[in-house]
Amino acid sequence: MATDAKVADGSMSPEALKRLEALAAAARRRKRLQAWLPWLVIIGMFVIWEVAVKAFQVQQFVLPAPTDIAASMIKWWKPLLDNSWQTLMTTLIGFGLAIVFGLLLGIAIGSSTLLYHGLYPLLIGFNSVPKVAVVPILVIWFGIGTVPAVITAFLISFFPIVVNVATGIATVEPELRDVLRALGAKPTDIIRKVGLPRAMPYFFASLKIAITVAFVGSIIAETVAANKGIGHLMILASSRFDVPLVFAGLMVTAVMGVAMYVAAVAIENRTTGWAMRGQTDQQTALAGV
Length: 289
What we know:
This protein is mainly α. The chain has helices at about 15-55, 65-75, 75-110, 115-130, 130-140, 145-170, 175-180, 185-225, 230-240, 245-270, 275-285. It contains eleven helices and no strands. Helix 1 (about 15-55) packs across helix 11 and helix 4 packs antiparallel against helix 6 (about 145-170). The radius of gyration is 26 Å and the shape is flat.
């Protein structure tokens, strides 16, 4: 007589097969929901926003409706495109510099206890300084233009990368270090073959934070010391009380931030997919049954 798990010939029983098929169907539904959920949430937010503005008769100069913002984006699409390209360029340059210097300094701090204790208070103190207060100094040094925006994006995205890379390298198990030393590994070998792979999930987690705050740095600098960019366009629009155009600038910045975040996630999945391979393999196996 067949048991709950198997029948006499060794195959799965109908009850167990039904349970497995139910789990696979649930996994497929969950995967489809995960793909559609962000879009449903965004659409729902805009619908609620539109209905609330119309229902409470909110004036356009206080809070424009999404349809008014869309109309403004269509009307001013050329200035928005031109200035968004400027903001994207300055942000990517500053972000790229933050990756290079943040990765190098993070490796150095995570590899040396002396550097860790010596430089950490300085980094924390520097990161505590509001970056908007640094922009006037950058204007004095470099003048109005692209350079202050690039440096501000660099400064605001530099700290998360340093901290996460240093944490990933510094948390390598002491026992593992001792075993590698006993096998003749040099400190540089430990960092290169163990520390850096260990720090990669931390590194990509910091990238997803840093790329979004890098846009904040660029916008801050452009509102104070630039003659081009989304921040500069928003200041001009606010001086004319063109609130829909101000919100259009915010929407464009949000879209660029989400696009860069998605790019960082895609690179992370291609590079450090092994870090979550257990969860991914389980979901794939269930979905493929």
